[in-house]
Amino acid sequence: MRGVGVLQLVNHGIPIELLEQVKKVCSESYKEREQDFKRSEPVRLLNRLINGTDGVSEEDLKKCDWEDVFILHDDNEWPSFPLDFKKTMKEYRTELKKLAEKVMEAMDTNLGLQKGYIKKSFSNDDDDSDEPFFGTKVSHYPPCPRPDLVTGLRAHTDAGGVILLFQDDEVGGLQILKDGRWIDVQPIKDAIIINTGDQIEVLSNGRYKSVWHRVLAMKDGNRRSIASFYNPSYKATIAPAPELSGAEGYPAFVFGNYMSVYAKQKFMPKSPGSWL
């Protein structure tokens, strides 16, 4: 995972029956949203471009993602359809959060840090009740008539800590950037993809890289993607671990301040000297 920033985990311990149920409820929930997506900005822009409408250019579509998405966390409203969506996703998120913490402990060991170092760094030192944030992004990438004109999800790195992705095992489209080349991440049935975000790159002083990735729009198939994010508290101060000295020179910053910048620059190039 070092130097690449991504791996596919098969023996993760999450019951296969639960994963099958997650696929089912997420796919069914999209059926309630499908008509809204057909009226969305990316669809309208693409249709206008195809039809030769004045005032629409390919550049306009480069700023869009061919993606239907909603976010789940402990304090927001969840879809009520299907009826077993909330129960299933609550159980799934509990399992994913435990897996994320196991992954972080493995990183602690691999980096020569004290067990629990990364998790503790994600909390606010001034308030023990201010814990790391755990969210889940449920996405669908519907069939696109002109995938040459629009991207499913534009190239970016993830802002947070550890990302656990349960991707579609039939419809591909996920790519990572390695050595200047885009490489397909081939679907493996019931695998959980682990990738590291910007905060892990900083904490590890560059030992773990935050991987650039994107999703291609596809002409056939409706790609399902469920990404869970174990992120620092907004008030947590993130900096390279003192034990991991080196030449990268990442600055220390408050995660909430970083997110304010990331929201504006998510799809722009970044380097150690331009985090804030």
Automatic annotation (TrEMBL):
Cofactor: Fe cation
The EC number(s) this enzyme carries: 1.14.17.4
BP GO annotations: ethylene biosynthetic process; fruit ripening
Highest taxon, organism lineage: Eukaryota
Entry-linked Gene3D superfamilies: B-lactam Antibiotic, Isopenicillin N Synthase, Chain (2.60.120.330)
Keyword Oxidoreductase: yes
GO molecular function: 1-aminocyclopropane-1-carboxylate oxidase activity; L-ascorbic acid binding; metal ion binding
Keywords (A to Z) from UniProt: Ethylene biosynthesis, Fruit ripening, Iron, Metal-binding, Oxidoreductase, Vitamin C
Enzyme class: oxidoreductase
InterPro entries from the UniProt entry: IPNS-like_FE2OG_OXY (IPR044861), IPNS-like_sf (IPR027443), Oxoglu/Fe-dep_dioxygenase_dom (IPR005123), Plant_2OG-oxidoreductases (IPR050295)
Reaction catalyzed: 1-aminocyclopropane-1-carboxylate + L-ascorbate + O2 = ethene + L-dehydroascorbate + hydrogen cyanide + CO2 + 2 H2O
Residue stretches making up the Fe2OG dioxygenase domain: 132-232
Family: Belongs to the iron/ascorbate-dependent oxidoreductase family.
Annotated protein name in UniProt: 1-aminocyclopropane-1-carboxylate oxidase
Species for this entry: Acorus calamus
Gene that this sequence comes from: MAO1B
